[in-house]
Each structure stands twice: as structure tokens, then as C-alpha cells.
Amino acid sequence: MSPVQRRSRSEANTMRVLAMGVALCFAMGSARAAEKAPDCSKVEGSQGALNQCFAGEFSRADAQLNAVWKSILSKYADQPVFLEKLKTSQRLWLQFRDAEVDAAFPVGKGDNAQVMYGSVYPMCVSAVQTRLTLQRIEQLKVWLDGTQEGDVCAGSIKNSVDLK
Questions:
Q1: Which of 68, 102, 108, 136 is buried most, with the most CB atoms less than 10 Å from its CB?
Q2: Euclidean distance between CA atoms 19 and 4, whole angstroms
Q3: pTM of the predicted model, to two decimals?
Q4: Which helix (DSSP H) or strand (DSSP E) does residue 45 occupy?
């Protein structure tokens, strides 16, 4: 076996291990999302196929976030001040998410992320975006789940009985 073939086989194995590790992180972050989504660690073929699978993971998480968001807007339509503050919070969270990705994979002006991080870059960015989005969904669900009667620190969170 030539050195190029050994390197190619080694790179393929490294990609599979990396994909399995990232998929495990997803599973730990949101078992529910992992049940609905294909298992990216089982994707065979090119890095492009892995990139596409992980991009799909992020797309599904983003759609779930949008559904939670719309539900909050509907259930809290009678609280315009809260919704204004939540919209500000969400805009800032989107900036935070993007800044976290930039911090995880810093790319200087004039630099090329694909050159710096290789063909795994899109997969890894999608993995970070997905992880952060799933965390945000859990944060927002507090307003959909509601709180129990007597929770004096609930603030804008409605009583769970009123949300049914």
C-alpha cells in the first residue's frame, strides 16, 4: 500500500471517528432530536455527504426553534412588553450563536476557512450551530411549559394551568 493510500484510509477513519463523536454529542444534547434525525455517524461516502447530513441536523434544529418561537408568540400575545424583550433577547442570542461559531473556528480577514480547517469545516460549524440551537430551544421551552402556582420568581412565565 502506498503512502497516499495509507493517508487516504487514515483520513477516512478519522472522519468516521469524528462524525461518531459529534453525533454522540448531539445525542447527549437532545435525545428527541436524535430520534427523528438520521444518524450522521453511519453516513458512508464522502466528506460532502457528512457535511450534508450535519447541515440537515442544523436545519431540523432551526425548524424546531422556529416552531417553539411561534408558539411562544401565540401563547404570550397578551404580553406585548414581554414579547418585545424576548425578541431583543433572541436577536442577541443569534449574534451570540454566530460569535460562538467564529470563536470555535476563527478565520482572519483574507483567510479561507476551508484551507484552515479542511473539508470538515462545514460539518463542524453545523455541529456547533445545532448544539447551541438545541440549548436555546430548551431555554425557550420554559415559557411553553409554564410554572407552578406560587413560583414568586417566575417573572413573565405564565402558570402552567393557564397555558393548557
A1: 136
A2: 22
A3: 0.77
A4: none
